[in-house]
Design goal:
Blueprint lengths: L4 H7 L17 H4 L3 E4 L4 E5 L5 E5 L4 E4 L4 H11 L9 E3 L5 H4 L2 H4 L6 E4 H11 L12 E3 L2 E6 L2 E7 L9 E5 L4 E3 L5 E2 L13 H14 L5 E3 L2 E2 L6 E2 L1 H23 L4 H5 L17 H14 L2
Helix pairs in contact: 7-8, 8-10
The structure holds zinc ion.
Zinc ion (ZN) binds next to loops.
């Protein structure tokens, strides 16, 4: 489901982020700080601010939150959720260990009964961020190996691990009754992904995991993506998952072909485009180059 303009107008009622003087346009970061709640169904929605998209299920019987961004934005999330329910968070999931999905745990822990992630996500969070006193961490209080499933409110929420992909510990969180699935960073929709071998990421594994998702879910499933080329693309359908899979295939194929031709690493990482994905957006400068370089290193190391 694409977010419609109407959804945004509806959600913008909760939008804050500073006092805007009439006719005055902020070009400063202030404008980036505004946040949005977007309803996908009556009880399920997404929260967009800075970091990976947060998903939630909020009723008077259950409150489930998926991912936590960072402490400042997590506070805005909680303030907004208070208008939907006065419950504590029954379950806070982390889709994976990356800081823009887990740093807000530190704020949310006082509002959450349980923090759940895949066992590798916890291990990678400890390993990659654990020894920095300037970045205090709050870890999952419970982990799982293959599946975590629980009935809460009118939902059955199921977290599943499909294998090495964007990191070594990605899970997919599915609201089964509504058939809405949060894919964490397994899909960067219409934009270059972050490829993180140090975080246990594996490009061929990622391709395989996306194939499993395409089989596991249906054309009716609504997906929530951690990142996208624009806010409107933070939700989507199975075709977007297929396109992400096609991108990883195209990236690996292009780089291996160039290597076979005898091109140098320097030449390959400075290629003007990846065939078939010439219009992909860079969310940060150098994203395409980083993708090419990580693919090169990955194939070289095989
Ligand atoms: Zn990530």
């Amino acid at each position: 489901m694409k977010l419609t303009r109407k959804d945004f107008l509806k959600s913008s009622a909760i939008l804050t982020g500073g006092i805007f003087l009439p006719g005055f346009k902020f070009l400063s970061p202030l404008q980036d700080q505004k946040f949005r709640f977007v309803d996908l169904t009556k009880n399920i929605g997404i929260f967009i601010e800075r970091g990976g998209t947060i998903g939630y299920y909020a009723t008077n019987d259950a409150l489930i939150v998926i991912d936590s961004q960072n402490p400042e934005t997590a506070k805005n999330l909680i303030d907004g959720l208070k208008q939907k329910t006065n419950r504590k968070i029954d379950l806070l999931f982390n889709t994976h260990h990356h800081g823009d999905h887990t740093s807000g745990n530190t704020y949310l822990k006082d509002f959450a009964n349980k923090i759940v992630a895949h066992e590798n996500s916890k291990m990678l969070q400890e390993k990659n961020y654990g020894n920095n006193p300037e970045r205090p961490q709050t870890y999952p209080t419970a982990t799982f190996t293959n599946t975590w499933s629980e009935d809460l409110g009118k939902e059955r929420v199921t977290a599943k691990y499909f294998g090495l992909a964007h990191t070594g510990g990605d899970s997919v969180i599915h609201f089964e009754n509504a058939n809405i699935a949060h894919l964490g960073d397994l899909v960067f929709n219409k934009t270059y992904p972050v490829i993180d071998p140090k975080g246990g990421g594996d490009l061929k594994g990622w391709f395989d995991v996306l194939g499993k998702l395409i089989k596991h879910f249906s054309k009716d499933t609504i997906f929530i993506f951690g990142h996208a080329a624009s806010d409107e693309l933070l939700t989507g359908k199975i075709n977007d998952v297929k396109e992400m899979q096609n991108y990883i295939a195209a990236l690996l194929e292009f780089v291996s072909t160039e290597m076979e031709k005898g091109k140098t690493k320097e030449e390959i990482i400075n290629s003007p485009a990846i065939p078939g994905f010439e219009n992909l957006k860079e969310r940060w400068q150098g994203a395409k180059k980083m993708n090419l370089e990580r693919a090169y290193d990955y194939l070289k190391g095989e």
